[in-house]
Amino acid sequence: xxxxxxxxxxxxxxxxxxxxxxxTKEIKPIRAGPKEKEAExxxxxxxxxxYKLTYDFAVKLNKKFKELIKSIVLFGSVAKKTPKKGSDxxxxxxxxxxxxxxxxxxxxxxREELKKIISSMTHGDRFHVNTITLSSFWDNMVVGExxxxxxxxxxxxxxxxxxxxxLKFLLFEGRIxxxxxxxxxxxxxxxxxxxxxxxxxxSAIGDFYWACVxxxxxxxxxxxxxxxxxxxxxxxxEKVFVKKNKLPKKYIDWYNExxxxxxxxxxxxIRELPGTEYDKWLKxxxxxxxxxxxxxxxxxxxxxxxxxxxxxx
Length: 313
Description:
By secondary structure, this protein is of the alpha+beta class.
């Protein structure tokens, strides 16, 4: 949550708990935007269970945080009327940082209490909650930031104190338009996203490589061998398994090829990798590790199981 801490005067307390109590905002039923009158009732395609979970969640938030919250908005696939069974329930919580002072202690308290509420919810793991400060939401809205505009366009206010719905109305009336700043910001993010996508493909090869190294070490250790360094794994696998006709030679060729590819990437000799290469090595890694595991007398590890510490050779 991005909340700027403001300077407080000596007389002013920083604690949220000392904020004067105001009249609790009443949670109203979901209301439609100005041009979406058909959404007055539960929209078709929105699972009744999802709406009930969202409403119960909003009630708990309102009870706990009261005047701290300006709006609770349901968005994403549920609000767009295109959910699937078990889809994430996307929630945006707009918190007041204009009239309420936030410090580190207050932010920590909010996060902890929010975490408790989510944990207490049935199917709480389905909630994808974004907390946005009022000032941040406003700054992004006035320049036409796409992410905020989409929340306003499709979002349904489950709780609103008079902030979200008027802005939604102005958007429908065409009064909120993209600015040159929004166009520039949107365009400037493109190279970074592309670079990150390419980097992830390269990083995946490194993960496949270490999967094959670890998968090879396990059966070798079971055979009584001290695990060799990665560059000698192929030779030892050939000696222990291939020459005894327990393992086809292709697996050794795959390992040696992956070893060379991973080190070329590490040394920046390869900076880009096509998706077809990723698909090829994913398939080979799965087959290789499965074959290595067939030599062991233990159960197949769960996909989510991972060691607390990984020592790389």
